[in-house]
Design brief:
The protein is of the alpha+beta class. The protein has 4 helices and 7 strands; from the N terminus they run βααβββαβαββ. The protein has a 7-stranded mixed beta sheet, sandwiched between helices. β4, α3 and β5 form a beta-alpha-beta unit. α1 packs antiparallel against α2. It is globular. The termini are far apart. The structure holds coenzyme A.
Length: about 160
Amino acid sequence: MILPAMAIRPGTAADRDRLSEILSGTGRFTERELGWAMELVDAALLGGSEEYEVCVLEEEGATLGFALFGRTPRTDDVYDLYWLAVDQARQGTGLGQSLLQFVESELRARGARMLLIETSSKATYAPTVRFYEAAGYRQISKIKDFYRIEDDKLVFSKTLKP
Ligand SMILES: CC(C)(COP(=O)(O)OP(=O)(O)OC[C@H]1O[C@@H](n2cnc3c(N)ncnc32)[C@H](O)[C@@H]1OP(=O)(O)O)[C@@H](O)C(=O)NCCC(=O)NCCS
């Protein structure tokens, strides 16, 4: 069987443990953050949630990253990107941008107006902020000391034109 070089598909329950491994392998998240991320992964993959969806990037059959997103409650056609992670060994090779572009085109097809992304102002997130800016996201708000003192919440947004 010839496996496709790269493919992005909806996540299934069978992906759960590998997604957990990718998240913890980034070394970016605390145990509490990993727990929160996996609550949403489980809601999307195991709980049949309509609020959260996962798409998974595979290369030659190996799962290398995923995005978790969903419609922002109580809005007309606004979506949130809740988590995005790429296997530590393959970061910086374009897979994150491929996942983000996939989510954006999927949402455009559904008539989404805007995609929002929240992130932290901690110095360790500077490469992540550069990644979002390179993808056309603009910082639209900052809540000072939101996560903890000296750790602000930054909100990035992109208008999704049809
Ligand atoms: C943020 C993340 C999803 C980006 O995916 P990626 O596949 O590494 O990024 P790409 O290769 O598509 O894009 C590379 C760009 O992203 C930025 N970047 C972010 N993290 C990077 C990393 N660890 N290594 C290299 N570049 C990184 C760089 O600015 C780079 O731009 P450049 O090529 O002009 O230097 C990925 O690095 C990751 O999983 N990081 C840890 C988890 C995280 O922070 N998730 C987002 C918050 S939930």
